[in-house]
Amino acid sequence: MHVFKKPARWLAAAACGLLAAAALPAGPASAANGIAGAGSRVGAGVDAQAVGAVAPPAPARFRNQKLDWRPCADGSLECASMSVPRDWYHPDSGPALTVAVSRHRAPDPGRRRGVLMMAAGGPGASGLSRPARLASYSPELAQAYDIVGFDQRGVGASTRVVCSDQDAVDAMFGGGDLRDRSAAAVRRTLDHARDFVRDCERNSGGLLPYITTDQAVHDMDLFRGLLGVEKISYYGPSYASFLGAYYATEFPRRVERVVLDSNIDFTGDWQSFMTGQPMSFQRRFEQDFLPWLAANDATYHQGRTPEEAKASFERLRAALHDRPLEVEGTVITPDHLDAATSNALYNADQFAALASLLGFLERPQEAPAQTRKAVAGQLRHVMGADFIADFAAVTCADTPWNRDTRYWLKESGEATRTHPLVGARELTFASICANWPRSKAPHIEVTGEGLPPVLMLNSENDPATYYEAAVRAHRGLAGSRLVTVGGGDHGQFQNHNACVDAHVEGYLLEGTLPAGDTTCPAAQR
Predict the structure, then answer these.
(1) What DSSP state is assigned to residue 22?
(2) CA 190 from chain center: how many Å?
(3) Burial of 319 (0-12, 13-18, 19+ CB in 10 A)
(4) Sheet containing 518-520: which strands, arranged edge to edge?
(5) Residue 80: how many CA atoms within 13 Å on its side-chain side?
(6) Average pLDDT in the 190-206 region?
(7) 221 is annotated as an active-site residue
(8) Which one, out of 77, 186, 189, 453, has a CA that is 20 to 30 A from the CA of 142?
(9) pLDDT band at residue 1, thresholds of 50, 70 and 90?
(10) For the segment 236-252, what is each residue's pLDDT rounded down to a tens digit?
(11) Is residue 412 classed as helix, strand or coil in its secondary structure?
(12) Once rounded to an integer, what is the mean pLDDT over residues 203-230?
């Protein structure tokens, strides 16, 4: 199992070492704008006693606040903070939370057509800087929209959820070899998961029940109202597709044009989606990366066929199992290799860096000191403590999970056997959610009812947001159009694919949609 984010570009740095030896209204939104709560809808599975069938309107202290826009730290955007209820269903109870927001303003108010809201993946990634990248990538959208972003509650510059410290997270995800199914190893995994949940409950200050997608979409609608607009358009990749689908479902009259990129199955539940990931990461590894590695054997010397390249990978992994490699203070285990590999599968432009890393791990003593330090620093933490805290909070609380340990021992054992690259981590993720405090988050049924057509994008071999799940989401979202992209990159828009970019910009700028589902070739680099 894996998390839904684009990898950092650390592998490229390591490889280099190896290869080289109109302005928005300033005032608060009016009550007529229906700020966060009025008109939101939930599905039939709601625990009405716990959360209410509909969230009440936001109290005046929230809807009348003013956003104090100031330059962000890097100077490329404007940033502000807004206060939100901890619990939108009981907005007067408990301390308020802070949500950090950002915007890139369209230069000419006369040409601006509206607000384009965007969010980050994960859950757990920061979205605060995203508008700057989108504005740079698509000047046409930057001319037409005020592009706004935010750090979701629980993340980054917003009120954060706190679980275990980094040392404990390192032990849970990078302490050895999660393929080991011995009784002692399985017991360690289960103990790590229970300890992590205990730390979350102990350190979160009562915040855990409110770090959910449903609560976050109410924050989004408050943001919309404080911007003074009746409707927003939306672009969301990866987990942000889930967030966008929930927002549009709960606030259907507040959306104009919606683009969902690299889709989680937002019509289903997290358990079924995440247990499908071992297959898709293994498929990307075997169908895309290994053939590429074999085709480039003259450079990387890992084998002239995919089978030989896979054998080389497994020999390296076995060597790390028998004797973990110490590099500049970082002890590199099979878990580190699996994580580095799965991260590099998100985009094909990371394949060369991963291939160089494999060579480094075979002969680290031949690498220059600069490269050794870079690899050690970047491999040190398999999973960030802040990231996994929010990731677990959202995925464990949004939808129900099976809590039977015997079930997960059997399920994860099969995943480890058949799809080991990511399947070996299934027991860790599932055990966290199986031990998570029971959630009262409402059931959100995404159907597409009452929505404008939604443009969906997904590649065929996406490892994290796999195509089969995107098709299920598409079929459940009435009126949507699915653009199927060749290859297996994660994140289609802003990936230098002219065909995809034309569809997205045509829709957001002109309202132009394909007549039906269509295709685009993989990005050419």
Answers:
(1) -
(2) 25
(3) middle
(4) 70-71, 78-84, 97-104, 145-150, 114-118, 232-238, 255-263, 454-459, 481-485, 518-520
(5) 15
(6) 97
(7) no
(8) 453
(9) low
(10) 999 999 999 999 999 99
(11) helix
(12) 97
pLDDT, average across residues 128-134: 97
Tell me which residue has tokens 């933490």. Answer: 381
Tokens of 499: 């065909």
Residue 10: pLDDT band (50, 70, 90) is very low
Range of the domain at 398: 166-207+383-435
Q: State phi, psi for 327 to the nearest 5 degrees.
A: -130, 110
- Cα separation, 269 vs 76, in Å, equals 37
Pairing of strands 97-104, 145-150: antiparallel
Q: Which amino acid is at 215?
A: Q
The answer as to whether 391 is a domain residue is yes
Say if residue 151 is in the same domain as residue 255: yes
Residues 80 and 148 in one domain: yes
Calpha distance 459→490 (Å, rounded) = 7
Which residue in the list 221, 490, 501, 503 is annotated as catalytic?
490
Q: Are residues 179 and 217 in the same domain?
A: no
DSSP-assigned states of every residue in 341-407: HHHHTT-GGGHHHHHHHHHHHH-GGGS-HHHHHHHHHHHS-SS-HHHHHHHHHHHHHHS-----HHH
In the residue annotation, 30 being an active-site residue is answered as no
**Catalytic residue from among 462, 474, 480, 489:** 462
Regarding whether 317 and 225 lie in a shared domain, the answer is no
What's the per-residue H, E or C state across 129-164?
A: CHHHHHHHHCHHHHHHEEEEEECCCECCCCCECCCC
Average pLDDT, whole number, for the chain? Answer: 91
Q: What percent of the chain has pLDDT over 90?
A: 87
Q: 4 lies in a domain?
A: no
Q: For 519, phi and psi rounded to 5 degrees?
A: -130, 160
The answer to whether residue 18 scores a pLDDT higher than 50 is: no
- The reply to whether 490 belongs to the active site is yes
Mean pLDDT of 270-299: 98
List pLDDT tens digits, range 362-379: 999 999 999 999 999 999
Please, which pLDDT band fits residue 54 given cuts at 50, 70 and 90? confident
Go through the chain and tell me how many residues it has: 525
CA 505 to chain centre: 23
Tell me, yes or no, whether 62 and 150 share the same domain.
yes
How many DSSP H helices and E strands does the chain contain? 23, 12
List 164, 204, 238, 431, catalytic entry: 238
Q: For residue 476, what are the contacts with CB-CB under 8 A and spacing of at least 6?
A: 267, 446, 447, 448
Instruction: Find out whether the peptide bond into 306 is cis, omega within 30 degrees of 0.
Output: no
Q: Alpha-carbon Rg of the chain, whole angstroms?
A: 23
Q: Residues 515-525, buried b or exposed e (16+ Cβ, 10 A)? A: eeeeebebbee
Closest by CA to 463, choosing from 263, 292, 277, is 277
Count CB neighbours of 322 within 10 A: 9
For 359, phi then psi, to 5°, come to -65, -40
pLDDT at position 344 over 50: yes
Residues 6 or more apart whose Cβ sits within 8 Å of residue 139 = none
